[in-house]
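input
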Amino acid sequence: MEEIGNSIIKKLISLPQNLPKFPTDHSTLHPVESPPTFRCIPSTSDIISDLICSKSPNFYDFINRYGNPDVEYPIFLESMLNSCEGKPWKENRRLYGAIDIDATADGLESCGLEIPFRNPQEHVQSDEGWVSSWTPPGAISHTHMDFYGSTQYFVHISGEKLWLMWPPTERNLAFFSTLHKQPWKADRTLKCIEMLEGLQLLYNDSPLTPFALKPNTLHACVSFSSSIHSGIRVCSLPYFDLSYSLIEWGIGWIRGKNGMTRSELTEEADAIQYEINMWSILVKKNRHHRHFTTIKDKLKELTVSLVEIRKKLDVVPPLFAVK
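output
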């Protein structure tokens, strides 16, 4: 991981433009109106409680780049301690992180973490609630996008982590389409630094720093220490046009197949359906909004397109007759 991480940092240093610690425009980040509120300050112990209580912990090996839900908690904690203490590396070791840790009543939910939107009527949060990621030092999450059309509101809880971010421009999406949902390769982020436009950096080293990624912002993360951030998906009326175009892109991407299996494409169709459902809930909350009819009609268009895709995906290919 040191070699891969160093190559990313050296590439960033070699770029001709200055890259500040926090973006100076809003091409990738949605401006946070005010800091989050909470009953008690979220801490690592809350995330550990969530991890223990989680029904489906998602452990990830950053060396071999694959998820492993069957890792036992002591093995994960031993891996985290070994990496934090900088113990000499052995070939049989793993570099485990925990991603998508659901908030529970015994952990993060007990903190009462809330986003103080200026106009809450124009926003709806995912019913999946807050989720957290805990990554070890040396972990690299190579360039990816998480959802189709959702804003992601984050709170950095602990550690030092560098975020590389690119806006979902037409050029960037065209290049990234062949990488989307494919296994991460060691040189993916380097290629993205070279090929994508509008790179911005965000360096988080202060606890309880809030930030919000705009819909489909491409991003990669490099952890310099044990790091934790928590986030929640949000649909926001001011971003409907952007979200609509990006959900359209996602539907077009599914149509293109891109080497994915039928079950993998069905999973992405489910993800887009979830986005449409969130938007439908938000629209119902805003029946008197001046663009209510237009937004409702566009959601119908997306639904029709998705239904057509699902009909094709639901057809099981016939087996070849054995001669």
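quick obs: The chain has two domains: 2-237, 239-313.
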